[in-house]
Amino acid sequence: MRVLEPIGGLRVPQGVAVHGQIAAVADTGNHRIAFFDLAGQKPALIETVGAEGTEPNHEGFLFPSGLCFTTQNRLVVADTWNKHLDIYKSAGGSWTFQNSISLFSGVTPIGNLVDVIAEDSNKVLVLDMDQKRILKVNITDSTTFEYFSNPNWSSPSAIATGGGYFWVADAGRHQVFRYDTDFNEFTFGSYGVLPGQLQAPRGLTVDPNASLVYVSESQHARISSFDFEGNLQESLILPSGVPHELYKIKLDKNARLLACDAGANKLYIVQLDVTSSLPFLERSRLEFGSVGIGYRLPLPVVVHNPSQTDVQISSVDISGSQFHLDATTAAFPQTVPGNSSLQLLVMFAPTTAGLAVGQLRLNLAHTEAVSLTTGLRGEGFSPQPATIALVIDRSGSMLQSSGEMSKIERMRQAVGMFIDVASWRGVDELSVVSFSNSASVEFPRTTLTEANADMVRTAVSSIIPRGMTSIGAGLQLALTQLAGSEIARKEIIVLTDGKENTSPMISDISLPRGSIRVFTVGLGLPELLDTQKLLDLATVNGGYFQVTDEDESLLPKFFTQILSTVSGQQFILDPRVEVGHGQEIKLPFYLSDSEFNAIFILTWEHYDSMFEVYLVGPDGRALRSNLFEHHIERPGYQAFRVSLRGTRWEKPGKWYIHMRLIKASVRREVAFLSISVESEIQPVWKITQVHKKGKSKEIHPPTGARAQLSPMCFPKPAPPIVPPPLQLDDAMQIRLSLRDFGLGSKIVRSRAEIIEPRESLTKLLERFQKLDLDSLQKLPKKKKYRAKQIFQKITGKISKSRQESLIQVALGKGKTDGFFQAKVSVQGITRSGHRFQRERYFQMYIPPSGTSKIKNKTRRKKR
Fold first, then answer.
1. Which SS3 state, helix, strand or coil, does residue 453 take?
2. Sign of the dihedral defined by the CA atoms of residues 124, 127, 128, 133, in that order
3. Which residues of 608-630 are buried (b: 16+ CB within 10 A; e: fewer)?
């Protein structure tokens, strides 16, 4: 790096943005923006716009410090002290003020906006230094939500994206923060003047082609380049003799850094060295990190050709049996045009556990460089185990009727199915605890396998209901079972049909926050359950609460969903079907090349019914039970698994599942089908609640611990959907993001189906608040106080990148609080052109107005 002649005529410049051959500089002390032409050897001033002013929607700045181009003709300025975003457009070569965004609904209070970068042509990410957060703003309609925050930041001063990461410079911590797409955090830098140390970094920019991040320091007049792992590559100290205070920096297309120096009142131009015209690879080694056996993780290798002439890659050699080129790679030879680059995808697909190494060699038809090589390294490992404690209600109320069977029989069916399917993994620990007046261990913690699954089911079947309800006693004993396990992932699943009436209570038990995830299931009507307690118990501890409400046959479905969450499966089809005796129905579904096994679970109401189930692949060949990898058929349910990847059934495309009712004691049988897959395409759901006053808040993944220095791809628990409590007339935004580890999947369509409660939970609680289930012989009839349901279908909006879908659901149309049933479905296409689908069932909750912390004005007016 070497310093060229700086540009003067500025006053305390703090921000710079580049698009093509145009640079915009925040002339902060003069409250204006200066535009420069970068085409010449020295940037030339084109024009200045703006002046001091404080009125929103009128041109005027108050110390602007960050700015970005969203398109060639649109500039967004972070008007720092005004706490506005000002938008300028270019027409006929001149830049004019268009409008400002000052009302950031739902994210107040707003602090000083010190930096802004473009996410796409219509959305920007804005750094709010005082609130230590980043806002995502749609500049077309002013929609705003909190994208990310970190209370550990001290004085975040600049943000950037590049190389698949999000970067934050923190002048107060003297560090640079790097985040991957899952918000895993890595930092580098410490306070000091030594090489690699930092003093108040206030600017950074990323060169993804060279895998470098450039950082400017306001207290040391130094610009340094680091690789993406925080290793220092080069440093440049500006000439002495004048005071320096470096702020934002940006790269232009002429291999130059533009650096704002607020101390010298200049824009410094730093020429980057280009020493060779030979082709080169941007990485000397591809680090794939830890990848689950059966998964695939692609990483790009980029060939750069800085010369004026074309370079031809004649062939490619890869050593290491677990590494290969992506199937979509074009045939060789391939040409890299002059002054251009070519990206190839290398896939790591581990088949065994342990370290795997290899080498990629590109053979060139070039006179000086014969070949280019890069090392390959990754680690394969098996699925992460979990230790699970089932906590089951055995109070007297479990003997009560629940449709065609008693509650205890429904529990045995659902838990039995859970045990059977969970045993296929063969790595998880399971313990079973039951509770009434007190708690007892029905089956002590042990590794669950197909060999001992029958013993566990027998123990569950031996549970006899009697006595009162002490959920706290069950939790306490479950904690004792989990305490002795060396497995890090710990899960508790609580099933109950009533309200606790015997100590210890839930509130008496102290759960270690963050180390044990809790799922709760209510069997029965929410008005007869400790709904709020069970909801809090689950959501505070990272799980979710589900209630069967009127349809107790949903219980096996709920356990299937919890199992998929724990094991990392993704639902692709989850319907309710009715089948007549002798009738055969078939349902279509899609499997893509990203799926490598599928689990099918069919449950039904009457134990003496029997189904014949088989599959038909895209080629028309039938896959029957004798070919299933696992197959269990018991009264009330049938389950099987099919391996796809590496087998003759690895056939992406449209499949059919055929279900024929071959034996029945009723004219029509109600059944629930669940198809889940283990896949590299893993949807990540984010929930935003939008109150009727416009206030919104996003529930996003928390910042993790310091991440490894390389990507990770492994079968891990699916993120549960945990919607926050809402109000009547609220709206909920369901945001789906695809996490496919670079496989290039795209969303085609998405939609949601919503069923509102039949009756207000407030009224139902008033009716049954004194009811004690454990002393009740017969439940009250439901239909007499249940009204007609309201059903909604909503189509989602898909982002331009087709990596995100947004569905907004308006709730409370029927003016009822309680539990809303919701199902979200999405269809998409992988990079290789194969269709995939996902479905997710969840429940949304509007608390009763009498117990909600938020006063319900709608209901108060009606009274």
1. helix
2. positive
3. ebbbebbbbbeeeeebeeeebee
Q: Please report, for residues 422, 435, 477, 503, the alpha-carbon distance to residue 500 in angstroms, rounded to integers and kept in the order given.
A: 29, 11, 16, 8
Whose tokens are 């609460």? That residue is: 545
Return the minimum-mean-pLDDT range out of 258-267, 331-340, 474-483, 578-587. 331-340
Using one digit for the tens of pLDDT, what is the confidence trace for 792-819?
788 888 877 777 888 877 765 556 777 7
Between helix 555-567 and helix 407-422 the angle, nearest 10°, is 30
Is residue 195 exposed (0-12), middle (13-18) or buried (19+ Cβ within 10 Å)?
Answer: exposed
Q: In what order do the strands lie in the sheet with 2-3?
A: 2-3, 266-271, 256-261, 246-251
The residue-averaged pLDDT of 475-483 equals 96
Question: In terms of Cα–Cα distance, which of 521, 529, 535, 534 is closest to 725?
Answer: 535
User: How does DSSP assign 693-759, residue by residue?
Assistant: TS-EEEE-PPP-SBPPSS--B---PPPPP-PPP--TT-EEEEEEEEE-TTS--EEEEEEEEEE--SS
DSSP state of 858: H
CATH number corresponding to 280-381: 2.60.40.10
SS3 label, residue 409: helix
Check residues 182 and 214 and name the one with the higher pLDDT.
214
Q: What per-residue confidence (pLDDT) applies to 791?
A: 66
* Portion of the chain with pLDDT greater than 70, in percent: 86
Going by the DSSP 8-state scheme, the letter that residue 364 receives in this structure is E
> Does pLDDT of 705 surpass 70?
no
- CB atoms inside a 10 Å sphere around CB 370: 10
pLDDT at 711: 43
For residue 63 the two structure tokens come to 């110390």
Tens-place pLDDT, residues 416-435: 999 999 999 999 999 999 99
Half-sphere exposure of 446 (CA within 13 A, CB side): 15
Helices 453-461, 407-422: crossing angle, 10 deg rounding = 170
The mean pLDDT value for 679-695 works out to 67
**Distance of CA 161 to CAs 124, 187, 206, 821, Å?**
12, 15, 7, 38
DSSP output for 43-90: -EEEEEE--B---TTSS-BSS--EEEEEETTEEEEEETTTTEEEEEEE
More confident residue, 744 or 54: 54
More confident residue, 281 or 48: 48
Cα(323)–Cα(412) distance, rounded to whole angstroms? 46
Length of the chain counted residue by residue: 863
Domain 2-271 architecture? 6 Propeller (2.120)
Strand 405-406 and strand 401-402: pairing?
antiparallel
Contact 146, 697 (CB under 8 A): yes
Q: Determine whether domain 387-568 maps to CATH 3.40.50.410.
A: yes
Q: Where are the domains of the chain?
A: 2-271, 280-381, 387-568, 569-679, 683-846
The correct answer on CATH 2.60.120.380 for the domain covering 569-679 is: yes
How far apart, in whole angstroms, are the C-alpha atoms of residue 561 and residue 717?
Answer: 12
d(Cα 476, Cα 438) in Å, to the nearest integer? 10
pLDDT of residue 721: 57
Distance CA 305, CA 441 (A): 67
Does position 360 have pLDDT exceeding 70, yes or no?
A: yes
Amino acid at 420: D
Residue (of 754, 689, 692, 696) closest to 723 by Cα position: 689
Task: Say what the pLDDT of residue 855 is.
Answer: 35
Return the SS3 of 308: coil
> Alpha-carbon distance 519 to 414, whole Å?
15
| DSSP tag of 274 | -
Enter the DSSP assignment of 191. B
Mean pLDDT for the stretch of residues 443-461 = 96
Contacts 24+ apart (CB under 8 A), 271-274: 271/1, 271/2, 271/3, 271/4, 272/1, 273/1, 273/2, 274/306
